Each structure stands twice: as structure tokens, then as C-alpha cells.
Amino acid sequence: MTPRITDIRLRDVAYDFEDVRYRTPIKFGGVALDRATLLNVRCTVETRDGRIAHGFGSMPLGNVWSFPSRVLSYDATLAAMKALVDRIAQLTAACPEIGHPIDLAMALEPSFHKAAEAVSRERALAEPIPPLCTLVCASAFDAAVHDAYGKVHGLNCYHTYGPDFLSHDLSHYLGPEFRGEYLDRYLLRKPKPRMPLYHLVGALDPLEDAEIARRLNDGLPETLSEWILAEGLTHLKIKLNGDDLPWDVERVVRIDRVAEQTQSQRGVSRWYYSLDFNERCSSVEYLLEFLRRVQERRPAGFERIQYIEQPTHRDLKAHRANVMHEAAKLRPVVIDESLIDLESLHLAREMGYTGAALKACKGQSQSLLLAAAAQKAGMFLCVQDLTCPGASLIHSAGLAAHVPGVMAIEANARQYCPDANRPWEGRFPGIFRITDGTMATETLTGVGLGAVAP
Hints:
Layout: E1 8-28, E2 31-47, E3 52-60, H1 63-66, H2 74-93, H3 101-122, H4 131-152, H5 171-174, E4 195-201, H6 224-231, E5 235-239, H7 245-266, E6 272-276, H8 284-297, H9 299-303, E7 305-309, H10 325-328, E8 333-335, H11 342-350, E9 355-358, H12 364-376, E10 380-383, H13 390-402, E11 409-410, H14 413-416, H15 422-425, H16 429-432, E12 438-439
Parallel strand pairs: 4-5, 4-11, 5-6, 6-7, 7-8, 8-9, 9-10
Antiparallel strand pairs: 1-2, 2-3, 4-12
Helix pairs in contact: 2-3, 2-4, 3-4, 6-7, 7-8
């Protein structure tokens, strides 16, 4: 590796946890969630010539999503993640490497997975901490390092991924077909100015007034129709059960009817859906039958489906029969929970997946490398949320705005934990206040991972 004057070493790492309560529960994978724990990380870095900067990263731990378990409780998986976070903090602070944040992340990741194995043994967990969960625990640390790196050079992070800063081309990380190419080839130097917002329609969320037993009366919309009218929404992400075909079909039919009526009031003729089964479909046949029935009952609603998130089990190797070739002829089918490294991306493509979901909670370094690999393969791309509030939303939005091909953005925290967003709203209103169905990502040009206040 050729040393660069721009290289950094880590000088200090600190973290804390922040508990957030939801205004209304969200159902995920059959579990109703009413809370979240944020991991906030601060780090100090120093360049080879002695310049120092501080970085910040934040991410929800998302244990129900990253560490689903039928035998461990919510508190048990969260406690395991917190223990792993402490190990990751120690490993990061003691990192002897000097280099670009991506090189530091790649050097540290194997030790993080070993730490997860150690925590699982020491706590005698009935199920070990999964690799995806380890990535989530490490993501705020990675974000803080990228943030500090941009700040020490007085640049937005997305201006630091070319040959002037990286010692290796992409072949070092992704294989020989990337020889001579750098990350900046697969990223936008300037963020897209505005991006449509994907609004989450959770399985517990009311569609119409009659479904509300008692109103919250907290000043925010409470039904789907109210959200569409208040924020000018044109993109809806629909959470489905995946194990109840009649319910899933009826849910999409009802949402399409409510959306059609509401969009008609607005004079809007084009809007879109994404479908999220949270990997609970037993087989691809379930998905195909679901799509057939939706198309039969709501042909126009079927045409509004933009893509489908991973419908079947995240363990691709153990479920090789669940290939997506036939479903992907109808709509892009996106790998999500399974996407943890380059190997999983290649396996997903073999199994018929035609899209990839990038997530800031899997790490900035990992997400950028996989974004390049997916683009080279011609895959459909989206960036998804982990109900990210505050700084974690800015991080996620920056990723979506700088990756070519990503057409919309998710921001669920404004629905489920708006209190965590409020300290940020005045500083970045275009990100945290939605009025025309889009997010003002043109503001994401500040140093590090930050944004410039309008």
C-alpha cells in the first residue's frame, strides 16, 4: 500500500446509548416494536502530518431486524449487541492501521466478527450473534471515522473516494474486473437535488378513520390518507406478513383503494409501491401467487409496484431452492437482509435476485463497495432505512443521494419516533420536514457526513 499524507490513524473512540420511544408501534417480522436504542459514537483521528479532527456517527441498533430470534428475548439480544459494541469500541480505539477509512474498516471487520463469536460464547447465547448484527453494531463507528476523515480534510466525504485519497483501486476489494477503477467512478460528486420519499405503511398502521380506536392527537397525521395529503406522498412502502396470503393480498388492495381516492383529490395520477415481506414468505411460489392475485384484483395497483424486498429467508445458502428468476421477470427482487458481503451479493445474483438494498446500518465502507459491485452487475439499487432519526438519517440520505440509480429514500423515524428528529428539524428542514413528497438532498454537501443548513 502506498502511504498517503491524507491517511489517518485513530486517536480516541467513545460511545453512548440513547433510548427512544415510538409514538406508535411498528410491526416487524411479526413483532410489534415500540422503542429503539441509538448508538452514538465519537472519534478523534490524526493525519500523518499531525492534523486532528473529530467525527460523529449514530445508528439504531435494530436488534429485532439484525438479530431475530425465537428463543432470545428483545432484552437479551439488545444486551448482547451492547456488549459487542463495547468490544468493537476497544478494537477500534486500539487499531494500529494508518490509512483511508475504508482500509481501516476492512482491516477491523474480521476482528469484529471474532468479537461477536466471543460475546456469544461468554454470554452462553442460545443463538449466536449473526454477521448482519455485527455490521449494525460496527456501523456507527465506521460512520464516525468517515465523518472525521472528511472534516480533517475540509471536504464532504463523497469527495474523498478517488485516487487522490485511496491507496488501492477497487480490484483490491472487489476483484480483478475493477482494476484501475476507484470508488468515485460509482458515486455522484454532487448529491441529487431532491429525492422522492418512501412512506412506510406498517401492518399496524391505520388506513382510514374507522381503524383508529383512539386518536393520538399529537399534531401528526394518523391515517394513510392524512399522511398523503399532509406530505404530498407519491411513494408507499407496504409491510406485509408473508405467511397469510389472503391478508397480504387484501392489504395491498385496500391500500391501493385508499391511495387512489386520496391521490385523486390531489390531482395526482402517478404513484408507486414497494413491497416488504421481511423474508417471511415460505417460498417464491407464495410471492408469485400473491402477485397474480393482486394483478387480478387491482391491475393498476399491480403496475404501481416498483420493486419487492427480499421475500424469503435471509440464509440463502440454506434455502437455495428459493430462486427468484420467475418473480424477477415481473419486478426487481431486491436482496436485503442477506446482503452482508461480496460473496452474498454474488450468490443472490445466481439465485435470481436483480436488485440490492444498501443500508447505512451495514457500514459506510461496506455500502459503498457493494454499491460499486452492484452497479457493475447492472442491478437495481435502493437505499433503505432502519427507522433512522437525526444524524443517522442524514447519513442514510447522503448514501441515497450520492449513489447513481437510487430513485427514492426512506425516512421512517418521522412517523414512529419524531421526538428524536426534533433537535435536527430547525437545522435541516429540507431533510426532516416533508411537504411535497420529496427530501431536499441538495443540502447534503457539508464536510464529513454532515449537511449544510439552508
